[in-house]
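Friendly challenge for the regulars: who can give me the structure tokens for this chain first? No prize, just bragging rights.
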Amino acid sequence: MRGSPFFDGVTQMEATLGDERVRVPIFYYDGTATQAVFAARLGALRRLMPDPRFSPARLAPGLGAVAVTCFEYRDTDIGPYNELAISVVLNEPWFLPNLPGLAVISSMRRRQLHAWVHHLPVTTEIARAGGVELYNYPKFVAGIDFEETASGRVCRLSEGAEHILTLSGERIATPRSQQSQLFSHLWMDRQPQSSEFKINAIEMGASLRPGAASLELGERHPIARELAGLLAWSRPIQYQYVARFEGILYGPEHLSPPLIARYASEVASDASAQPA
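First reply, four minutes later:
Bragging rights claimed.
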């Protein structure tokens, strides 16, 4: 929430995203998230990677892991919006031994998840433009709708009239609170890019029960067809429900010459606009 000590000590500056002026790093004051991690075909995940420095984590022989995460951001510095991330869990750094289960267990223990962001639909243009311009996130504007049922929470992703996926999860108990870091790994100007999303989960719970969540895929959309070929089965190996969280989106981490020129141009523009 606004005024939370979680944001203390973090300096923001103004930047232009699309046609709007915003503050960065971006603060997320109130949100809800559900995440399900699925076993996926390791060979197929490797073929998605644009560079050997992105190494999908080995879950078991022949299997990696794909996370589907639904975010409902009710209050942020760029307004309310929804987002759905389809990500491949990584063995990070890529040169470390990629033993079965090691990267996944290590990420849970350290509360640090490293993932290749493969698709990232959002519901507003400012969220799309900022993500693409500053990080090269694979964002597009889509329909992301949430429904509260008697037993849980449903997230439905669509593009136009075409159904992509529906993630249904139980409203499990949320007795824990913890801080964690989501490191998004991207590809920008033909080199690795990354960002950190620091999350303060105020009310959260997790389950290893396969029946805690389920994934339904559309029949015709390219993303649905791609996921059908990637996932080993539609029941998750791990499920999280975060009833309330706040977060800070940092970065981009790697300031390439085009990004440096963009920031320098904005600083010069701001300086020239000041009265003499």
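The mean pLDDT is 93. Residues 257-273 form the longest helix (17 residues). Your move, everyone else.
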